[in-house]
Amino acid sequence: MNLGLRDVVLPPAQRRTLDELTHDLDLRHGDRRSKYSAFWTMLGLSGIIATAGVLADSTATVIGAMIIAPLSTPIMAIALGMVKRERIRAGRFVFFGALLVILIGVAFTYVVPGDIDVTGNSQISGRTSPTLLDLAAAIATGFAGAVGLARRDVAAVLPGVAIAISLVPPLAVVGVCLGEGEVGYALGALLLFVSNLVSLVIAGTILFAALGYSAEADQKAKRVGAGRRSYAALSFFLALVLLPLAGNTFVGYLVNSWKHTVEHEARVWIAVVPGAEVLGVDLSLSGFVVNIRTPQEPPATSELLEKLDGQVPGIPVVVDTTVGRSIDAGTIGEDG
What we know:
Layout (H helix, E strand, L loop, with lengths): L2 H7 L8 H8 L6 H24 L3 H10 L3 H13 L5 H22 L10 H4 L6 H19 L7 H7 L3 H12 L3 H28 L2 H9 L6 H43 L6 E8 L2 E8 L6 H8 L8 E7 L13
Helix pairs in contact: 2-5, 3-4, 3-6, 3-10, 4-9, 5-6, 5-11, 6-10, 8-9, 8-11, 10-11, 11-13, 13-14
């Protein structure tokens, strides 16, 4: 980033000093006891709120948990520590903080009566299959968060950054899914959290270094050169999350393509019945579910399977039929 662009992103008059950033992000800097107390108290409460919001399928409640969650502080401290080329101690807060939220999620599954519908809950299903789009959004959010931390005049954007980056809710989903024995869904939510974590660290490291904090730290410590091991580790973790995210993106593209094909062929198949229509196609554990509404018996399902043969792989197809018919109820006010 050249000097002109750096001055646009971070005008000298609004630039926070390295010491100020360190004080805000490093929980071990300054009054440790107060910082530890605030971090663990707010993280525990946000974990409870997030888990309750997930189980209630309440977007508003989950957003509230995002705003008060302090987990992004030690994550951005990791980025600053890499820029300063110090020993990364903030990772401990991230690890044990994540573990705390997961355990809260598991505990809730034993308290809530009855089974939890993992697949039918939008707060869960929306966080168990992350894609490259989630990674792109997380990296952009990380840049926004780093700018908000580095500038004195845009601190108001940080609550928006907390909402945009999903940290505590995926961990709550991990705990809920583990408590329900859904390990696959738990791993998907954990992948979302890890990808968001790595994205924040990458964006924060790049921006903090580009804004001159790396040079300032080197000048104070009288060091020369770059910390290659930290950047190599960061590149490794980025590659580690890119592979499954790319796989999820590819699988999602295929599934959507197949759903479109099934819906198109289902409309052609049911068109021979006057008044019949396809309401939609869903993908469930039992396969593709074709929802139709028809005034009479639909054609043989074997005809639909013949149309799909060769276009969609061997996935079961279930036709869910709603029989619609008109009943003359008479006129209001007249005796039957």
